[in-house]
Batch of 3 targets.
Target 1
Amino acid sequence: MSDSSSQSPGSRSPMQDLPPSAKLVFKTLEYEGDLTQAQLTEETLLPSRTVRYALTRLEDEQFITSRISFADARQRVYSLTNPNSDTSANTQLTPTS
């Protein structure tokens, strides 16, 4: 049985220190693209307060950014700050000839 406290603090990534709800919100944004808090609440099935906390943590760690929605200025749209390079590599167009 390994003890996670034996790891040095510098060996952990900031994502590992986030709560599971923040990781779920991050993955949802990764798969679904830009979403509002209400859409994230619906997609993740988490309580609104939990999603709001997760978004705050993710913004504090600079994993996501937010902007005002053009469709409804009362809402903010959240997106990843640096989309995963693995997914962008999979979507590149390659010649078929």
Note: The radius of gyration is 16 Å.
Target 2
Amino acid sequence: MTSNTPTHIDIGGIALPREELAQVLPDIERFEQHLPDALAVDRDMQASKGAVPDYVREWPQARIDAVVLTLKEVGSLREQTSEQMKTSGAGHSQH
């Protein structure tokens, strides 16, 4: 890892250790390269109730495929992180 390689990667509100992501993702370089596009598409789709943003249609198919794969990975990572937080007791209040 070089000195400019981040130690954590923000997947949209959750920063996860890059080292751990490199162990679970098949291609960390592709993930990092397409993460900004994936987060933008995710944000814009949420804002438009699921409609694919028009600008995506202008992208080459290879870029679309990579962004879709990255979006799936982001969703899976968010779900796993949420589950880990639930099982570790984070977010649970006992009255």
Note: The longest strand covers residues 8-10.
Target 3
Amino acid sequence: MSKIANAFNASPEGKKYKLNLQFILSGTSAASLQDRIVAAQKAGQKKTNYDLILASDAEYAAYTQLGGKDIFQKAGFKIEVQHRLS
């Protein structure tokens, strides 16, 4: 993931936007990222520190079940991920 962030930040688009990679740990007494995003949605908060998150299909289903179908906005771009085996 850090290679993706570094490559983006070194690209022409990286001159306009900065990609920060954050790993958010959760556990006992810690609010999960899902808790934070759903709470922001329910409070009507439009600005968060998270523009793009990586989530599985099951996580996406949980987000939309808890926060509604409009919890996410469509991105104005497409992300292609290539897997390389070495």
Note: The first helix runs from residue 2 to 10.
